[in-house]
Amino acid sequence: MIEVKDIVKRFGRKTVLDQVSFTAEKGQITCLIGVNGMGKTTIMNAIMKLTPLQAGEILVDGEKVTKDTFEKIVFIPDATIMLPHFTIEMAMEFMKDFYKNWNQRRADDMLAFFKLNRKDKIASLSKGNTAKVNLLLGLAVDADYILMDEPFSGIDIFSREQIAEVFTSHLIEDRGVLITTHEIGDIEHLIDKVVILNDGKIQKEFMTEDVRELEGKSVIDVLREVFVQ
Amino acid sequence: MKNFFKLLNFELNRVMKLLLILMGFTFIVQLVGVFVARSNYLTHLEMIQQNEGSSVSQVLQSIGYFSFDRVVNSLFFIGPIMICVAAIMFYIFLIWYRDWFGKNTFVYRLLMLPTARINLFFAKLTTIVLATLSLVGFQLIAIQIEMLVMKWTVPGEYVMEVTLRQLIEIHPVLSLIAPNQFELFMSLYGAGILTVIILFTAILLERSYRMKGVLFGGTFVVAVNLLVILPLILNQTIFDSFLYNGEVLLIILALGVIVLVGSIWLSKRLLDEKIRV
To answer: Residues in domain ABC transporter (chain A) (predicted)?
Structure first.
């Protein structure tokens, strides 16, 4: 389980995250939703120790994040994080070199599924294909948790469908996924849990099934209630 | 340790192109320098022979032998060395900043690798050291080849051969980059490595605290430099040369070690806790 406990993040005088707490469980897809600039990416960065926090702590399976944690939690950011002159093959080699949990068979499967050419240079890929490579490099690590930041942002409809398909596949099964997205429509039916971030605070945290069954509402309905208020 | 070597190999591959370009550039320009010096000498020689019809010994008395120090004192020789020094200085910064800037933010990948982040620091440091040593090593080999070329192209009776050792002794820049005495080599390269470590820490301060970090980094560099030369200043002012030079040197060495350990400790802390993408 990823436990985010009372984290505080300030940029200068602006408090971006104010005592934010939530959990993301293994085997579930947890969606972090909030308007742009609300600190969703900052939370992801903080989990991966890519930005310091003013207060609070983050635990993964009850332990603080160390170098060993990076074998069981991977972050797929919005941006390309491989060297542009690398080919997809070189990028996979790089990952294989450093990650004990790298699963080449899975990487090859995804390469075929996304119809990517391993000899293509990362710099020459379209935005959609770059996102697919990002996803491939993250998901081919046999990690327990996957963090995804806006995996659908600025991507064409066909790529979006392909990426959404990944969420229903064995690639995600049994893993804990924490995802941020605006385009909730693409994966609404797949999400187990929603955490709504507003004004630097957790506005609401709920299981989608409960809301659907008990209140008869969709995720979008609840979002509308929170943000239109 | 295995990851350190993987990262080192990776960083060396990234700098390889630059190194090869620098080596090629140095060799070509210095070779041009050999031909320019040769041609100046031979023109001079011909003029004297034509005008005065002098013998070899008279010519040598008038314009001297042609030796390699005519080449090393020209801009063709010093220029490429200076450019290599500048390139390495620039690369000390580039080796970090290239991971943050540009089209792809590679620093995400590096910081998320399942390895101690201080390995990044040591891999980049070792890359700078190895790059410097390979440029120096190449320069020493290049000099030998350039001397051979000189010997082949200038009539033997006018050539005075100098050894590499002699050349280093008489040349201020060469004696600095490849000193003949081992102790001096160790002290110069030790001080150089310490400087790179201090600069790396300053860069990490900037990358962790951004605008404020520029101030922290600047203050850090000035403070550690002052600390290291403090014994020298104090001995010459307040203590009125009470300590022997050897003793001052020992204290400086001890302070250098403290700065080295402190700087690496601070860098590790910054990489682990404070760094920002």
So the answer is: 2-224
Tell which of A47, A51, A81 to mutate to test the B interface (max B CBs under 10 Å).
A81
Q: Across the interface, do A67 and B115 touch by the CB < 8 Å criterion? A: yes
CB atoms B104 and A70 under 8 Å: no
CA B42 to chain centre: 34
Residue ranges per domain, chain B? 1-179, 181-277
| pLDDT of chain B, 277 residues: tens digit per residue | 899 999 999 999 999 999 999 999 999 999 999 999 999 998 988 888 777 667 777 778 778 888 888 898 899 999 999 999 999 999 999 999 999 987 778 999 999 999 999 999 999 999 999 999 999 999 999 999 999 999 898 888 888 888 889 999 888 889 989 998 999 999 999 999 999 999 999 999 999 999 999 999 999 999 999 999 988 888 888 887 788 888 888 999 999 999 999 999 999 999 999 999 9
Chain A residues with CB within 8 Å of chain B CB: 45, 48-52, 67-71, 74-75, 77, 79-84, 94, 97-100, 122-123
Q: How far apart are CA B160 and CA B67, in angstroms?
A: 5
B208/B216 Cα distance (integer angstroms): 10
CA torsion, ordered A95, A97, A99, A103, to nearest 10 deg: 70
Q: What's the pTM?
A: 0.92
